[in-house]
Specification:
The structure holds 2 protein chains of 2 kinds.
Chain A: H1 6-20, H2 22-25, H3 43-66, H4 74-90, H5 95-117, H6 122-143, H7 145-148, E1 154-155, E2 178-179, E3 182-183, E4 187-192, E5 195-200, H8 201-222, H9 224-234, H10 236-240, H11 246-271, E6 274-275, H12 282-295, H13 302-316, H14 322-328, H15 334-344, H16 352-366, H17 370-383
Antiparallel strand pairs in A: 1-6, 2-3, 4-5
Chain B: E1 4-13, E2 16-26, E3 31-35, H1 42-50, E4 57-62, E5 65-66, H2 72-78, E6 80-83, H3 95-108, H4 123-135, H5 151-164, E7 169-173, H6 181-197, E8 201-205, H7 209-215, E9 218-223, E10 226-231, H8 233-238, H9 240-250
Helix pairs in contact in B: 3-4, 3-5, 4-5
Classes of the chains: A mainly alpha, B alpha/beta.
The structure holds adenosine-5'-diphosphate and magnesium ion.
Chain lengths: ~400, ~250
């Protein structure tokens, strides 16, 4: 079905169920309980999960398959956001044209940066992409202020032309992005006892696009093109002497992953119609590298998991403060309580980066294949006894 | 006129004249061996033929067309495949995938943006790759990662990959180096079979005289970057200059 093998179809189905049921899965704790702060089922964060999932899926097509480590992919994300906001300002608040333009502009931009950066490989390639991204950041932050809004960022204004929906927006409020009347920020709530589940239009829109992106990534991984990309990573010399030109292959991979980043950037703007230069800063480029490595480089599902984990930590752990900690350890004798709080404190709130760093180190050292390898090890432990019977000699592709 | 014509090729690395003034003509559908002591410039000569190095002087013509100034993949697409001195395969890919890549390259050219189709459903390519693996006696290893193959198998795989491109000229750089006797004999049989079954020209660099004398129709002896003599195997065996320069130490 869908041109996928059974294994890939299962994977796609799992991701489908996870994303569609995310409002439930991410909100396991009842409202008002002590654990409720670990709930991640609110629209903002759920949107970020899937949008950064798209970003990481695309990044992995370049880094995971060809091994070329770009350190400047946030530039394409930023370009995508700016394009989308401009589309909202000039054309219409409908998200479709905005996102289409994001992808196209990011694609063009990545042809240019890719063409130049791919003249080198290894660390020099990474440095070139980093340089381009920082240049883009500097341009967006100051030089191109009329286009990008500079320090304050690009925002919508009441008097924007919006030529397609001019009449509709004369109500006096700045309109919000939508999809043929459905506003991205709209949500429905479902109350079940103490639990509240939020179903947000923007989230489901982004989730559907992520599923499509994920499906496309599977197709690319299993295609002759995907195999050529893996061949580039494995042995470029042999590639050359087999009559294949690695350059257009890597450039195509670079542009595809740049378009994924542009799509993510466009979606970010569709969820919240503003764009700032900080989206292109080098730390943002580094973050997607971390996501991919944390989840599992070159695997299909890994980048999505990595993106989820990092965004979860960024948003949940960073919100824990010392009062909450005292609450947790309140059952202990006073002295021990303070001691425990003092130990845990550096890892929460603003210290979430420390936690992320430790998690990252542990994964890289003990699970070089990322979270996916962790999952595989667990699955193997359960499956050890019945391996012989259902070990069909199918195709050997990189793990999911 | 041979299918491969090398004229006055010279190559210098810094102060070292790796190739002096090499002239070589390889006749179509023959097996031509190039022998010579270590450091004679044999691999350097092959590098000049496939675009890995650009010679300082001279010309290299393949089938009437100049090879110089073309990129390695373009030269390969002209019909020249090369087996390297240390096997160059796609270690992270499976044996079957390794075999499929040259089949794609031969059919679809140097670049194809076929990013949606399932490669395993391309029956033509898969069948061709499986046939070649069968011919190489490696069908049972098709799901293995190429990096985990034995040295002999890696070499066989690389030869198979080159053959599956249906090249007109196959260049082999010491294909039996480091192989056990049995593997060497297998390789000789394989090459003999290839030569009998196909319209193919083979240029082989080899250290092992047993291999050279069981395969070659003509032999060029290279020493210090210049061809010493070129003749039939029988004549080479008895040639005093060759015995002195090379066979003496190898025997
Ligand atoms: N890329 C290179 N740079 C510098 N010197 C080289 C290079 N390649 C080969 N040489 C030198 O050229 C000479 C010939 O080498 P080579 O062609 O590999 O000999 P062989 O006949 O053993 O294959 C050797 O002295 C080698 O050290
Ligand atoms: Mg050599």
């Amino acid at each position: 079905m869908l041109g996928l093998s059974k294994k890939d179809l299962n994977l796609l189905f799992i991701v489908f169920v996870l994303t569609m049921c995310a409002p439930f899965i991410l909100n396991p704790f009842p409202e008002g309980s002590a654990m409720a702060q670990f709930n991640a089922g609110y629209p903002d964060l759920m949107q970020r999960f899937v949008i950064f999932g798209i970003f990481a899926i695309g990044f992995n097509i370049l880094f995971g398959l060809t091994g070329y480590l770009s350190f400047g992919h946030a530039a394409f994300l930023g370009v995508g956001s700016y394009s989308a906001v401009w589309m909202f300002k000039l054309l219409s608040m409908n998200v479709i044209p905005a996102i289409v333009l994001s992808v196209m502009v990011a694609g063009l931009f990545s042809v240019l940066i890719g063409y130049i950066s791919l003249r080198r490989s290894g660390i020099y390639f990474s440095i070139l992409t980093l340089a381009f991204a920082q240049m883009s950041f500097a341009l967006a932050y100051s030089v191109l202020t009329p286009v990008t809004g500079g320090e304050t960022g690009l925002q919508l204004a009441l008097n924007d032309p919006r030529i397609l929906d001019g009449a509709a927006s004369s109500a006096g409020n700045i309109p919000v992005p939508g999809l043929f009347g459905l506003e991205m920020r709209d949500s429905t709530f479902l109350r079940l006892g103490d639990w509240v589940f939020t179903f947000n239009v923007g989230y489901y829109f982004s989730a559907v696009i992520m599923l499509l992106s994920f499906y496309l990534a599977i197709r690319i991984f299993r295609s002759p093109f995907g195999m050529m990309l893996r061949a580039i990573k494995s042995n470029q010399q042999r590639m050359n002497y087999t009559g294949l030109n690695p350059k257009p292959y890597t450039l195509a991979a670079f542009v595809i992953s740049g378009m994924y980043a542009g799509l993510a950037g466009g979606l970010m703007a569709a969820m919240d119609p503003l764009a700032g230069a900080e989206r292109m800063f080098w730390t943002a480029s580094g973050e997607v590298v971390l996501m991919t490595i944390l989840g599992g480089v070159g695997t299909l599902i890994g980048p999505v998991l990595g993106a989820g984990l990092i965004k979860y930590m960024e948003n949940i752990i960073s919100k824990i403060n010392s009062e909450i900690l005292h609450g947790w350890f309140a059952f202990m004798p006073d002295g021990i309580e303070d001691f425990m709080v003092a130990i845990v404190y550096p890892f929460i709130g603003k210290g979430w980066h420390l936690t992320l760093g430790i998690v990252f180190m542990l994964v890289v050292i003990f699970l070089p294949g990322g979270l996916v390898e962790g999952g595989q090890r667990i699955a193997r432990m359960f499956r050890r006894k019945k391996t012989t019977q259902d070990n069909t000699p199918g195709t050997t592709e990189p793990a999911e | 006129m041979g299918i491969l014509e090398v004229k006055n090729v010279g190559k210098r690395f810094g102060g070292l004249q790796a190739l002096g003034d090499v002239n070589l003509s390889v006749a179509e559908n023959s097996v031509h061996a190039i022998i010579g002591p270590n450091g004679a410039g044999k691999s350097t000569l092959l590098n000049c033929l496939v675009g890995k190095l650009i010679p300082d002087t001279g010309s290299v013509m393949f089938d009437g067309q100049s090879v110089l100034g073309r990129l390695p993949h373009e030269i390969n697409q002209m019909g020249i495949s090369r087996v390297f001195q240390t096997p160059e395969i796609f270690g992270d890919l499976t044996v079957l995938e390794n075999m499929m890549i040259p089949c794609f390259a031969q059919r679809d050219g140097a670049f194809g943006l076929n990013a949606i189709a399932d490669m395993m459903k391309d029956r033509e390519i898969v069948d061709r790759a499986l046939d070649m693996l069968d011919e190489m006696n490696m069908l049972d290893k098709r799901e293995m990662h190429a990096a985990s193959l034995s040295r002999g198998d890696k070499r066989r795989l690389e030869i198979g990959m080159c053959l599956s491109q249906r090249p007109r000229l196959l260049l082999l750089d010491e294909p039996t180096a480091g192989m056990a006797r049995a593997d060497t004999n297998n390789t000789i049989d394989l090459l003999k079979q290839i030569k009998d079954e196909r319209d193919i020209t083979i240029a082989i660099i080899e250290h092992d005289m047993h291999v050279v004398f069981s395969l070659a129709e003509r032999i060029t002896v290279l020493a210090q970057g210049t061809p010493l003599v070129e003749d039939t195997p029988d004549k080479i065996k008895g040639h005093p200059k060759v015995r002195e320069a090379y066979l003496g130490e190898a025997a």
